[in-house]
Amino acid sequence: MNKTPILEKNINQNSKNRKYERIGNKMQDYEIVMGLEIHAELSTKTKIFCSCPTEFGGEPNSHTCPICMAMPGTLPVLNEKVVEYAVKAGLATNCEISRDSKNDRKNYFYPDLPKAYQISQFDKPLCENGYVEIEDDNGNPKKIRLTRIHIEEDAGKLNHNEFGGGSLVDLNRAGVPLIEIVSEPDIRSSGEAERYLRKIKSILEYIEVSDCKMQEGSLRADVNVSVRKKGATEYGTRTEMKNMNSFKSIVRAIEYEANRQIDVIEDGGKIEQETLRWDDVSGKTFSMRDKEDAQDYRYFPDPDLVAIRLNEEYIQKIKNDLPELPESRKARYIEQYGLSEKDARLITSSKYLSDLFDKTQEICKNPKITANWILSDISKILNEKELEPDKIPFTAEQLAKMIILIENGTISSSIGKKVIVELFEKPEDPEEIVKKNGWIQISDENAIKAVVQKVLENNPQSVTDYKAGKDKALGYLVGQAMKETKGKANPQMLNKLFVEELKK
Amino acid sequence: MSQVSKEEILHIAKLANLNLKDDEIEKYIDNLEDILNFANVVNNANLEGLGETIGANENQNVFRKDEIKEFKNRDLLLQNAPEQERGMFKIPKVIQ
Amino acid sequence: MENIIDLTVHELIEKLEKKEIKVTDITKAYIDRINEKENDVQAFVTTTCEEAMKKSEEIQKKIDKGEKLGNFAGIPIGIKDNMCTKGVRTTCSSKMLENFISPYDATVVEKLNNEEIISLGKLNMDEFAMGASTEYSYFKKTRNPWNLNTVPGGSSGGSASAVAAKLVPWALGSDTGGSIRQPASFCGVVGLKPTYGLVSRYGLVAFASSLDQIGPITKNVQDSAILLNIIAGHDERDTTCENRQKEDYTKALINDVKGMKIGVPKEYFGEGINPEVKQKLEQAIEKYKELGAEIEEFSLDIAEYALAAYYIIACAEASSNLGRFDGIRYGYRTNKFNSLKDIYRNSRSEGFGDEVKRRIILGTYVLSSGYYDAYYKKAQQVRTLVRKEFDKAFEKYDVLLTPTSPTVAFEIGTRSDNPLEMYLADICTVSVNIGGLPGISVPCGVDSNGMPIGMQLIGNRFCENKIIRVAYTYEQNTDFREKYKPEFKK
Q: Which 5-34 residues of chain B touch chain A by CB within 8 A?
């Protein structure tokens, strides 16, 4: 079977295609150093400091109230779920949970920030000193350290008015809760960056604190990039890139920016510390000087909010209620189902794949076969269509049914492959798909015998070869019979009958 | 003695989004220096080992339940807007 | 019958209960008074007399029908113009909010509405509560009814002046560094700043969030206790508002201080205190001794630190709190703009007055990078120090006694141009805010020009009952209200 792990393929494609597209700079002499700041919207029902719904969409300013609109005199009240979700995220990423935390104001003017300050956390974040494990480019395990996870509020949205020549402020998103996950500068390649981000995404999905939909902006990453000569101990000057909204654009942006920095240094220039905006269309980064203009955020403790002091009991309870994390599922798959380490890792890299696996194998009682289907045909199609696993359109029940149809001989596994394709196109009962397409396997001994005899008559050379001891010839003959029956013949019966006939 | 430079006061004004007219700058510097010099008495206090009191009371862990309560009156929220269009606040074009 | 406007609120309630007067009589009497005296006093930014009259007629109808209403139904009130009122503009006496109509009611306003207390309008103040004379109002200069050439104090000058001039029977003020107590002192009325966290700040337009408290300004101590009963209490919309057992402050109206310990911090009677103020305070101390209180002088050397910390903290918080006034969602917008930057800079520069801008600049400075530790962080530590010193004092004393202000009301326009000197005048009151303590100002005499002098009583956190009792006893055994009346001297 052709196993093409979805994650690794993406990375390889990207790096192969782009790594050396700007020949001339001495990429190989340099090392890229990166840290990520990941913003994830928490999937609470209400905003962080008021009771407005966080629901995506809606008429402009329809999910607002005096508080998130920063009307004079209003005060914030912290949503308890936000604290809980952030602590969950912290525990799932091996962080220490702060017993003494607080909210701070980050002051700056921008029309999407109605209070002219964002309530965030400065020196006492809820979670600190964590790590997650990924693989480096050589497939070896590597820890990426997390500096902190803190809670903060999202800003509103500026819409551009094509005709009126102005911008329009919609505050529906203002006050939606976010966690910001800040990593140490431990990341050394775009591949690591992508695997790290995928790892965080999968953890947040596992613990069900965020939808992590990059397209809707519920998962965003800013990347701090610097380069240095290999072997150097000091970090280079870093730039911060914003506005990447897919894994692909993150990888592209990193590679573009690293190359740009190397070019600048090689030309004898200096890297300026600045914030850059990635433009996916042109594939370039642009300076965001506007926001840089007056960067002194004047953080101070928000006097409208009180201290957050979590006790052992609270933290222990969240710990106990934490759902099974990828690492533990992986171990279970290896131990209980006998999957290989690699297969178990690939399946658990996505909560959706892992859930699909669990549910499917529970119905069809065949974990290994289930794993094979997920990692071969299903992953291949996801790759081709550039889909994330959560976009798989069919259910575990449908997949399990397909596997059962093969098990009980109704269809062959090569028909199974066709069923998977159909399931992606138009998910329905596999039995229906098989019926509609007339794919039911031929298991009638007489019918199969007729085909076997026909194939033997037409291929005397293969018969001779087989008799001379070339076992391979049998495979060829079976293949011919399959072709004859458009893949519908029962392969076990074909084999058996060929061997019987040839022995005669 | 606290000394505030012209550049500093202009930087501060920029952060605060306030214009200072040329003839105001001197006055602001004088006022600010006066007040800062007085405020420096906080440095004379014996603060060894003292923590920072953040709020004026010791409340902690005051949270809200995650329950939706909609305001449901967008017009009231928009009624004070200097300029609005299609339910949004209108401002000059911002290039992002 | 006595003139309605001379009665205290508890007297009005008694008369209403006995059906000696109607609520419409009360509202009418005050509206007539406003029509007669507002021109002299200039206490209101907005009056709502018509609506008030209509409401009182509705309430009177209910009473006539025999409906059971709350004790305070139909009692008028005045509200400082920094508390949000749905449907009636809330200006903070600023050009910035000249036409601002809040989409919601402040919690205290809701509480008044629930009691069917009738607002006569919104009272003048220093712009965004920054000032101590009400001269920094964008709209008008409120006068002190004792002498119309003098200031009423501030920032709740409109509230204190309106109560003293009997334009309202009582009023709500707010106090960040003395803004209830000092104008109460200047206008010869009672002003109570509650413990931080006793009254919800939701809907109070923030000046300095960690210091602001709403409180009553009334004719006497009893009315302050009554109004405090109405406005105090937990509010889930303000996390700094403490969730405590509700207290009945009228139970503290006990005419007896025998055995109570009153500490007199000597630093508050030193240099800079007007001798006549000092003299009246000393007489008050004598009175307490006569009444059986134990008086002891002690040292509380924190006033200067507290004042410095106050200006750092208050301005820092204000600089952030006032960022939202940006000309986008509400408030003043400049008409000179081509860009967003113009809207920000010009709206704020044109919409805020000088004093507000000065404090924003100071606050921005102390929070800015490189200065935070030297100023803001130090100030927060001073706050801890101040609290500790007060804690020590309250181990020994039930209440502390100081002047409310070093001086009496000064003439309009004579306020120092030097902001530092102006700030120094707050020395007696600000440490109470820094400590988060309750304080009450009670009139204790007049100076040789007939201008009122106030005595401040400070209590430990949530010990409003003690300051109320000590203030009440003084009031019951002296005759300020009978002896002295504002004369609207011109």
A: 11, 14-15, 17
Which residues in B lie closer than 8 A to residue A69 (C-beta atoms)? 77
pLDDT on residue B55: 65
In this structure, what are the phi and psi dihedrals at residue A108, rounded to the nearest 5 degrees? -165, 155
Strands C118-123 and A239-244: unpaired
**DSSP state, residue B21:** -
Hey, which residues 258-297 in chain C have their CB within 8 Å of chain B?
none
Nearest-CA residue of chain C relative to B31?
C419
Nearest-by-Cβ selection for A69 from C201, C323, C329:
C329
Tell me whether residues A107 and C103 touch, CB distance under 8 A.
no
Distance CA C454, CA C475 (A): 12
User: Between the CA of residue A19 and those of A26, A255, A281, C250, what are the distances in Å?
Assistant: 11, 7, 19, 79
Please report how many Cα atoms fall inside a 13 Å half-sphere around the Cα of residue C61, on the Cβ side: 6
Rounded to whole angstroms, the Cα distance separating C454 from C433 reads: 18
Structural domain span for residue A456: 445-502
Phi/psi at A255 (5° precision): -70, -40
Output DSSP code: residue A378: I
- At which residue do the structure tokens 């409180």 appear? C215
What number of other Cβ atoms are within 10 A of residue C6's Cβ? 13
The larger pLDDT score, comparing residue A109 to residue B1, is at A109
> Would residue C155 show up in a list of annotated catalytic residues for this protein?
yes
Q: Which of B15, B45, B62 sits opposite C382 (nearest CB)?
A: B45
**By the CB < 8 Å criterion, does B70 face chain A?**
yes
Segment C454-480, tens digit of pLDDT: 999 999 999 999 999 999 999 999 999
Domain C4-260+475-483 fold: Amidase signature (AS) enzymes (3.90.1300)
Whether residue A351 is found in the same domain as residue A216: no
Residue C430, both tokens: 């600000």
Same domain, yes or no: A66 and A174: yes
Burial of residue C365 (number of CB atoms within 10 Å: 0-12, 13-18, 19+) = buried
Residue of A109, A300, A304 lying closest to C367 (CB–CB): A300
> Residue A18 above 50 pLDDT?
no
Residue A294 in domain: no
| B2 inside 8 A of chain C by CB | no
**Residue-range domain boundaries for chain C:** 4-260+475-483
What pairing do the DSSP bridges indicate for beta strands C399-403 and C261-265?
parallel
Instruction: Provide ipTM, 2 decimals.
Output: 0.97
pLDDT one-digit tens code per residue, A192-249:
999 999 999 999 999 999 999 888 889 999 999 999 999 999 999 999 998 888 899 9
Q: What residue ranges in A201-238 does DSSP mark as E strands?
A: 219-229
A190 min Cα distance to partner chain B (Å)? 26
- For residue A29, which of A229, A267, A227 has the smallest C-alpha distance? A229
Asked if the Cβ–Cβ distance from B68 to A306 is below 8 Å, we say no
Q: Which helix (H) or strand (E) holds C246?
A: none
CA distance C410 to C399: 29
**Is C179 marked active-site?**
yes
User: Amino acid letter at A204?
Assistant: L
Q: How confident is the model at residue A20 (pLDDT cuts 50, 70, 90)?
A: very low
Calpha distance A104→A303 (Å, rounded): 8
Nearest residue in chain A measured CA to CA from B64: A79
What CATH number does the domain located at B6-43 have? 1.10.20
What domain count does chain A have?
Answer: 3
**Nearest CB to C106: which of A73, A117, A303?**
A73
